[in-house]
Write a structure and sequence with these properties.
The structure holds 2 protein chains of 2 kinds. Chain A is mostly beta strands. In chain A, 0% of the residues lie in helices and 49% in strands. Chain A has no helices and 11 strands. In chain A, strands 2, 4, 5, 6, 9, 10 and 11 form a 7-stranded mixed β-sheet that branches. A 4-stranded antiparallel β-sheet of chain A has the order 1-3-8-7, with no helix packed on it. In chain A, a hairpin with a 2-residue loop joins strand 5 and strand 6. Chain B is mainly β. In chain B, strands 2, 4, 5, 9, 10 and 11 form a 6-stranded mixed β-sheet that branches. Chain B has a 5-stranded antiparallel β-sheet with strand order 1-3-8-7-6, with no helix packed on it. Classes of the chains: A mainly beta, B mainly beta.
Chain lengths: 114, 115
């Protein structure tokens, strides 16, 4: 079953804590993306990666960090510097990086602050 | 210049009606315009997409109309059903040498189709 798996589905963060959201894809896609979704604001791009070991900041990268050590995996860390982390986080992939326009999304992780 | 403006924010229609969702953009470097459908608690799923050299594209009950000169495109849902109740997002992608694959999304439209 090909697709994008995000985990966990729900995550709670304590004050001052870093948390990491997992995103794994078995679609053999080169490019991967992280979005944040807030009510009434659409999807905003946090980070994206077009190839392993390379990634770029999106529109709202402050307070977040990523790594791309494997083609299949693109974890997102929400750091303590992100003061308003409560949101629905979506991971997507597309590939090959410039030949295929379609982005496929995971089911999302809902992050809340305790 | 990087924005995609979507309207209306919410829409209620009766079953069988034809909801229309509109999007507008400024940047002529966009070369691909997809629409996504999202159900509550789920990730968005690609519904239909169009390129600017085509004025209309139809897939089943879903139609995109594209007006390149006005920099506007819209989604029409024919014979809408309660199962179409969802949030719909338009998006645009930069083409040419600036192509990174990333999409710019509209703000979303929440559609409710009443039985």
């Amino acid at each position: 079953d090909g697709g994008i798996t995000q985990s966990p589905k729900y995550l709670f963060r304590k004050e001052g804590q870093n948390v990491t959201l997992s995103c794994e894809q078995n679609l053999n896609h080169d490019a991967m993306y992280w979005y944040r979704q807030d009510p009434g604001q659409g999807l905003r791009l946090i980070y994206y990666s077009q190839i392993v070991n390379d990634f770029q900041k999106g529109d709202i990268a402050e307070g977040y960090s990523v790594s791309r050590e494997k083609k299949e995996s693109f974890p997102l860390t929400v750091t303590s510097a992100q003061k308003n982390p409560t949101a629905f986080y979506l991971c997507a992939s597309s590939g090959p990086s410039r030949g295929n326009y379609e982005q496929y999304f995971g089911a999302g992780t809902r992050l809340s602050v305790l | 210049q990087q924005q995609v403006k979507q309207s209306p924010q919410s829409l209620i229609v009766q079953k069988g009606g034809i909801p229309i969702i509109n999007c507008a953009y400024e940047n002529t470097a966009f070369d691909y315009f997809p629409w996504y459908q999202q159900f509550p608690g789920k990730g968005p799923a690609l519904l239909i997409a169009i390129r600017p050299d085509v004025s209309e594209k139809k897939e089943g009950r879903f139609t995109i109309s594209f007006n390149k000169s006005a920099k506007q495109f819209s989604l029409h849902i024919m014979d809408s059903q309660p199962g179409d109740s969802a949030t719909y997002f338009c998006a645009a992608r930069f083409g040419g040498s600036s192509n990174t694959g990333k999409l710019i999304f509209g703000q979303g439209t929440t559609l409710q189709v009443k039985p």
